[in-house]
Each structure stands twice: as C-alpha cells, then as structure tokens.
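I am writing to request your help with a piece of structural work I have in hand. The matter concerns a single protein, recorded as an amino acid sequence and a row of backbone structure tokens. Could you please explain, in whatever detail you think fit, how the structure tokens follow from the sequence? Thank you for your consideration; the sequence and its tokens are set out here:
>
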Amino acid sequence: MAIVTIPRIFTEHRYFHTLMKYLFFILLFPVSTLGQPLRDINYNFVYNSNEPFQFSVEAVKSSHGWTAFYDLTLRDTTQDIDQFIIQWDLRNDVSEKDGTPITGDSVAMNRTRNAIKGSVFIASFPEKKIITAKVVNQVAKRAWIFSKLLDPKYPADGYLISNDMPVVEGFIKKDSPVTLAGEGERKIISYYNDDFPAAVPGFSTGMGRVAKSMIVDSTFSHKLSEPISFAETGLYLVQSDTNATAGFAFRVEEDYPRLTKIESLADPLIYVCTKQEFDRIKQAKGEKKAFDKVILSITQNTERARNFMRSYFRRVELANAFFTSYKEGWKTDRGMIYIIFGLPDQVYKFADREVWTYKNSMYKITFEFVKSSTLFDPENFVLVREKKFQETWYEVIDLWRNARF
C-alpha cells in the first residue's frame, strides 16, 4: 500500500480538518451515492419493508411555487433518529449526476424520537424539475436517494392535515378528523363510491387506463381549517372549482392497509383463485368456517394454509401502503405484481415509466409500467401487458397455491 505524506505546514492549516472529514466521508460512503444519474439507481429499497425506515414525500403546487411535504419514520426503533440526515437538491432530468442544493430557510424540519418530518419550498419555474432527497445514515455510512417529479402541469393544489401534520399517504381512516389545506377559503369535495375492478393478469390484452371521468355520487362544500371526518369509504376529490383541472384526491378506508376482517380478505384472493373458488369465498360473506374451508381446499394442508394466508396478506398490506391510488393499492397494476412476485430485484425509475426486474433460479422476468396520469392520481402507472408473461404467471400462481414460495 502506498503511503501518502502530507506536509506539516498543510496539516496546520485551518482547512485541513475540513478536508480530512470530507475525504473520510468519500472513502466510507459508496461512490454511487456521491454523484449518480437518477436513471441509474436501483430503487428497489423504496418498496422494501426491511429497510430501517420508510420515507414519503408529497408535492403540492400553489401560485407561489411548490411545497414538498416529507416524512421519514423509523421502522427499526432500535436505531437512533439522530444518525440520519436528509440532503435536498433540484435537478433538470434523470440524467443529471448532481443537482442544485436546496438549503437554508427553504427547508423546514421537525425531529421526534422516531421520525423526521417537514417541508421543502421551491419557487415557481416554467419547466419540469426533479426534487431529490438523499437520506444518509452517518453511522452506518449508507445513503438512499428518493426523487419526485415536479411538473408545472401537476394538478395537486392542496392537501390534508391530520394531527397537525400533512398527510403524505393516499388514504385516511374512516371517521378520523382531518382538515383541508390549500389556497382559498373553501373547497368543493366530490365523493365517488365506485367499486373499482382489480388489475387483470399481466398477459391479458390491452392496458386498462383510468377513465377520464366518473359519475359523482355526492358533492358538498367545506371551509378550510375546519375539522371534517368522512363516514363513507371510497374515493374523494377536493377542488376549488369542479370545472378546474386541479385538485387532489384520497381514499377513505376502514380495514386498511392491513386487512383484518374476514370479509375484507375475500377480494384480494382473486389473483390466485379459480372462478369457482372465488365465488365460494365471496358466498362465505365473512363467515370464518366457510372461508377457511375454501382456503384449505386450495392448499390441501393446514400448515400450508397458515403460511399462505400469512405471506399473501402481508404482501397485500404492503401493496396498500406503497401503491394506493384512486383505488386500493392491491387492485393497482404495481400492487398486483408486487403481491404475486414480491419485491423486485431491480427497480429503475424514469420520467414516464418504472421498470421492474425479477431474477431467481426459476425465471427472469421484467415488467414495465408506464405513467398514465389523471386528476385522481398524477402518479398512476399502468402495466404494459404481454402474452409472454402467461407461462411464468401460472408457474408462480401454482407456487402460491401450494405455499411453496
């Protein structure tokens, strides 16, 4: 090993220790975290529930600019939240290695025992930008990069507040009090009671895009900052004007994201059941003995039935947490693939699509999801379906039905 001798006159300079600290940081952190195009990052950690924290960011546009609300919450509470810092920058596209740092008064932060929450303000701009958050664990010497596209045409112009904090998930609990936030004095709330269909298998023909319009079940007005709770589950759209192309949507759910009621467990099983089995599960109408009988007929073994239910509905819970959209997370295309195939080995994100790849001893398969934005969900992604997926799909379904995953 070569030994580098540093002149004494330099070590006595007041910048020496700053330089050494910077070099120490470079040596211990992976090079990929120090300057890497966003398009080259494997984002599978975003959907990995075993990561030490979960991170969410929601961007809201106003007449003055953008506000990105963020929430970093520890999953592993044995870790110290003070080990983590968040560094923000703004980039022009996914090919840029480094962006313009966002610092100072533009970043608001609140630390609690297990979380870091706050907001980042970005002044208005005429073209698309990407806000990037680098989460760094200074003790473990590891970094994670998250990004969010900021499009001047992005329709979200408001948000919900719960327990004095912005709601960054796409859902709230039934009957839980929240307040509306945004510009103006009042908002118009439209309620949609549609029972949106579950995604169809990846080998089916066509791509089920979101309908441009839906039938409104009810509409009412509500004043900003006044508490409100929602007694009906379903989809809600909040706007300043029903003729406007701006607003924000969210779902109200009761047994969610973790499903615990027998009647809630029936519908997500559509991906692994035959039509006859699914009909029998629905006919059980929440009666446990009848429900268990169908599951046992699928797995042919009590222990396998337990393993199947535990593993399958853990993935349903994660799909709801990660992919809730205008419909439940498990019903979305990404949610469906996540439930059946699990955490992708590789996730690459681009401005208009996500690409997931699975690699194991039995198969290698890649799924592409293209962005299909609507007012109800600007981040909606639709699976590009291909016939070639059929054989692998049924092989994996067979593994599920025999609890061999």
